[in-house]
């Protein structure tokens, strides 16, 4: 066989041709007007096709980077609330071509177990750490050690203590916070309680772990609204483990059923058990509501046994920290992640449908689904802040 034209050889190599008819014709120069011209045309067409396919698939526009391993250190690693958070960071990592972040910490809000995992991440030379700051003292040194080692740290879901009057005490030099404005959300809970319990009286607010910075500010915010208005507010612990929360709630309700005017909660687990606990205590029609979108909570709202829940978007609390750590690393530390409020939306029976679909965003399925937006106008109140 004679010498192969360079353009023909390029086409064969680029297109990875096997011993098919087109390959033989290109090599032999037979059956085609010009093997060289045909090869050029094939390369052009396939290049255009490849570019179009790449664009259609939404390929990553960033340059190649190391396989950065991020760590998420959590305070209740087995809690169902954080299932969407784990889907969020997995989806962001896939989008960016990174390994799925590590998920570690404590199952029962033990700060020492969490800080040990932050230290482990530093020893492993993690590319970034996202952690829940459930108090203002335990994380000062571990976070500083990570930052001093050149490892960016940000917080999500909880950002240190907040005083009963709403003054933050973060306690460490993390880069930013991604999560709900917790004290503000508690104040909004208080206002909603006033609207459903119109005559001041005894109300209970259940809380999984009193004193911890991911939920205590909510109780304090609610109390700051209710107490001056003449309500008597009781803060009742239910426990960090979801398998004990309902029983603890039932016990309290049985002892106070004759005086209570409302029952509420500031964490996802306690909120989901409000309606079942009230039923087991033989209480019907008592105003109740809480936080988050556990499937049981949504079912209770659908059944009319829970009045409302407050949404803080746990999916974003996994997705955004992953993106922020990636951008901080890829920009040489010049894109510093911003504090981000992941939202405060009330879900009631009137707007439940859009939140009650199976999706990774609510943690109710592993399937990757496109959920079309509801048709019609987008309802949103007039904006009140730029921060």
Q: Structural class, from helix and strand content? A: alpha/beta
What's the CATH superfamily of the largest domain, by name? Response regulator
Strand and helix order = HHHEHEHEHEEEEHEHEHEHHEHEHEE
CATH topology of the largest domain: Rossmann fold
Q: What's the mean pLDDT score?
A: 87
Lateral strand order in the biggest sheet: 2-1-3-4-7-13
Stretches with pLDDT under 50, minimum 5 residues: 17-27, 29-35, 41-57
Shape summary: globular
Beta strand count? 14
Cα Rg: 27 Å
Task: Give a quick set of tags describing it.
alpha/beta, Rossmann fold, 387 residues, 6-stranded mixed β-sheet, 39% helix, globular
Protein model, in words:
- By secondary structure, the protein is of the alpha/beta class.
- The longest helix is centred in the N-terminal third of the chain and has 22 residues, at 35-56.
- 39% of the residues lie in helices and 16% in strands.
- The chain has helices at residues 6-14, 21-28, 35-56, 83-96, 111-123, 140-148, 182-196, 216-226, 242-256, 268-272, 274-280, 295-303, 316-330, and strands at 70-74, 102-105, 128-133, 153-159, 161-162, 168-169, 177-179, 202-207, 232-237, 260-265, 288-291, 308-311, 340-341, 345-347.
- The protein has 3 domains: 6-49, no CATH class; 70-180 and 315-341, Response regulator (Rossmann fold, 3-Layer(aba) Sandwich), CATH 3.40.50.2300; 182-311, Rossmann fold.
- The strands form 3 sheets. It has a 6-stranded parallel β-sheet with strand order 2-1-3-4-7-13, sandwiched between helices. Strands 9-8-10-11-12-14 form a 6-stranded mixed β-sheet, sandwiched between helices. Strands 5-6 form a two-stranded antiparallel ribbon.
């Amino acid at each position: 066989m004679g010498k192969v034209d360079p353009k023909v050889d390029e086409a064969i190599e680029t297109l990875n041709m096997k011993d098919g008819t087109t390959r033989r014709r290109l090599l032999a120069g037979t059956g085609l007007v010009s093997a060289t011209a045909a090869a050029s045309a094939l390369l052009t067409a396939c290049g255009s096709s490849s570019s179009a396919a790449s664009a259609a698939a939404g390929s990553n526009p960033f340059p190649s980077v190391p396989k950065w391993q991020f760590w998420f250190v959590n305070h209740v690693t087995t809690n169902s609330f954080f299932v969407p958070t784990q889907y969020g960071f997995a989806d962001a990592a896939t989008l960016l071509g990174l390994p799925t972040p590590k998920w570690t910490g404590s199952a029962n809000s033990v700060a020492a177990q969490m800080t040990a995992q932050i230290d482990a991440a530093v020893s492993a030379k993690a590319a970034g750490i996202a952690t829940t700051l459930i108090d203002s003292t335990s994380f000062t040194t571990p976070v500083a050690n990570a930052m001093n080692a050149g490892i960016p740290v940000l917080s999500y879901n909880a950002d240190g203590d907040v005083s009963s009057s709403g003054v933050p005490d973060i306690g460490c030099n993390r880069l930013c916070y991604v999560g709900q404005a917790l004290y503000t959300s508690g104040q909004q809970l208080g206002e909603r309680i006033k609207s459903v319990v119109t005559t001041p009286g005894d109300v209970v607010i259940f809380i999984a772990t009193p004193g911890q910075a991911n939920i205590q500010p909510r109780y304090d915010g609610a109390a700051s609204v209710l107490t001056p208005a003449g309500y008597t507010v009781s803060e009742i612990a239910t426990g960090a483990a979801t398998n004990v929360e309902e029983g603890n709630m039932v016990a309290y309700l049985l002892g106070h059923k004759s005086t209570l005017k409302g029952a509420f909660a500031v964490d996802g687990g306690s909120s989901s058990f409000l309606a079942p606990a009230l039923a087991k205590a033989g209480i019907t029609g008592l105003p109740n509501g809480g936080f988050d979108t556990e499937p049981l909570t949504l079912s209770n709202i659908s059944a009319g046994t829970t009045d409302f829940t407050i949404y803080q978007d746990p999916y974003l609390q996994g997705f955004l920290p992953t993106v922020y750590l990636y951008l901080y690393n890829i920009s040489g530390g010049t894109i510093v992640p911003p504090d981000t409020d992941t939202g405060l939306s009330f879900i009631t029976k009137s707007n439940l449908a859009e939140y009650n679909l199976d999706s990774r965003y609510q943690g109710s399925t592993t399937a990757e689904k496109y959920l079309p937006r509801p048709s019609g106008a987008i309802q949103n109140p007039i904006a009140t802040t730029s921060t």
